[in-house]
Design brief:
With 126 residues, this protein is mainly α. Helix content is 90%, strand content 0%. It has one domain: Four Helix Bundle (Hemerythrin (Met), subunit A) (Up-down Bundle). The protein has five helices and no strands. Helix 1 runs antiparallel to helix 2 and helix 3 packs antiparallel against helix 4. The longest helix has 43 residues. The radius of gyration is 18 Å and the shape is elongated.
């Protein structure tokens, strides 16, 4: 009987940890996406100085978050976002609107894909 109790408590802890992970990833991804929206709006308004400043803030936030995200997701996905962030910086330096906006969409898409894969579904459990 004691073993069944330990099993039930373990399962509850595992599910709770999974839910907390998903909430954390969702909340932090929304934060990064909103920062990217600020950059996008600045680019559309041809305010590249503000876009570059906002990029630095966004990159600083991402740099802190990625260390925690490494616990939950693969290094390949982190590397993809890192490469896109570096590419975005390049496009902002040369004020390349089309490519900068495209790179922002790539980053958002990568983040959305990560969150979708981490969601609690039967397919992910089995």
């Amino acid at each position: 009987m004691k073993q069944v109790g330990i099993l039930i408590v373990s399962i509850i802890l595992l599910i709770t940890a999974g839910i907390c992970e998903i909430k954390y990833l969702n909340n932090t991804s929304l934060y990064i996406k909103s920062d990217l929206d600020y950059i996008e709006n600045a680019i559309r308004n041809n305010n590249y100085e503000y876009a570059r400043a906002q990029y630095e803030n966004t990159f600083s936030s991402w740099d802190k978050l990625k260390d925690v995200w490494h616990i939950f997701i693969t290094s390949d996905e982190i590397d993809t976002i890192n490469a896109s962030m570096a590419e975005l910086k390049y496009h902002l330096e040369f004020e390349d609107e089309k490519d900068a906006l495209m790179t922002i969409e790539e980053i958002k898409s990568s983040i959305t894909h990560i969150i979708f894969r981490q969601n609690l579904k039967i397919d992910n459990v089995l």
